[in-house]
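4.2 Preliminary Data

To establish feasibility before requesting continued support, the project team ran the inverse folding procedure on a target of 290 residues. The structure was first converted into the token representation described in Section 3, and no sequence information of any kind was made available to the design step. The complete token record follows.
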């Protein structure tokens, strides 16, 4: 828990000319008496590509600090142009407001700063050499970035833990590295067993396919017998068809005989009729009834 808490920072002169002083109204709270002073510092970031151009604008010692809410005005000079690259004067940069106790930083507030000319014409067509008298800065005070750090204050109890707490039960637990290696070996063994099982299944499947192929190849020999039986059946059919034809011919022959017999019957009937006529001629008074 921090003994000093930053409650708020207000940028007073904003926007302002580039060479004007920075002014901040800082409000903080102190929870217990401090033996030393607080050091406030303002840093200007001169270049986005290198920290060599960063410069400390001003620093201030505040103390002794009474317990409770405190407020003060912090002023800092404008940056030294000689330490800023010419190409980095205009545009967006950063300022850092920080506070330390006993050379240990516990809070830092960062702001974006936009440096530009005060006329649109110069912004559209800036001169080769910056005209500082025409440059104005605008601190984006609405969007600060606050970072807090845990530090040791006056008492030892306030010091943050530099090492994790002791855990005697952790010595009894098996090393993660060993367990991880054992798990890897088990996984590898399981994968190897799965591969061998898959190979065995594939071999069994191939054997079954070969056996099936032999079974299908074996019974193919009797196809000749089937062909012979088919041929025999054809002969039987042929013979049966031949016998049927003979029967039909015989029936037809019998029909012819019947026809011939019919013709003979007609002839016999005619003969009998002739005889009857003769008999009638002989006996005209008698009538024969059939």
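Position-by-position output of the design step:
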């Amino acid at each position: 828990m921090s003994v000093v808490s930053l409650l708020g920072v207000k940028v007073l002169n904003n926007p302002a000319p580039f060479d004007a002083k920075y002014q901040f109204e800082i409000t903080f709270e102190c929870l217990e008496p401090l033996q030393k002073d607080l050091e406030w510092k303002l840093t200007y970031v001169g270049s986005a590509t290198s920290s060599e151009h960063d410069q400390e604008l001003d620093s201030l010692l505040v103390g002794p600090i009474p317990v409770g809410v405190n407020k003060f005005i912090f002023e800092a000079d404008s940056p030294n142009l000689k330490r800023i690259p010419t190409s980095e004067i205009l545009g967006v940069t950063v300022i850092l407001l920080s506070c330390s106790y006993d050379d240990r930083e516990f809070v830092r507030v960062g702001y974006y700063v936009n440096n530009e000319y005060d006329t649109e014409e110069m912004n559209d067509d800036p001169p080769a050499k910056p005209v500082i008298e025409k440059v104005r800065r605008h601190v984006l005070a609405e969007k600060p970035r606050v970072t807090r750090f845990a530090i040791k204050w006056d008492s030892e109890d306030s010091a943050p833990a530099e090492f994790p707490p002791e855990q005697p039960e952790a010595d009894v637990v098996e090393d993660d590295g060993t367990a991880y290696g054992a798990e890897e070996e088990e996984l590898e063994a399981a994968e190897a067993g799965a591969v061998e099982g898959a190979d065995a299944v594939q071999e069994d499947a191939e054997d079954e396919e070969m056996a099936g192929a032999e079974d299908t190849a074996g019974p193919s020999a009797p196809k000749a017998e089937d062909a012979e039986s088919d041929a025999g059946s054809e002969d039987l059919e042929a013979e049966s068809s031949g016998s049927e034809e003979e029967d039909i011919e015989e029936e037809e022959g019998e029909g012819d005989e019947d026809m011939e017999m019919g013709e003979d019957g007609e002839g016999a009937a005619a003969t009998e009729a002739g005889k009857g006529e003769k008999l009638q001629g002989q006996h005209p008074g008698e009538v024969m009834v059939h």
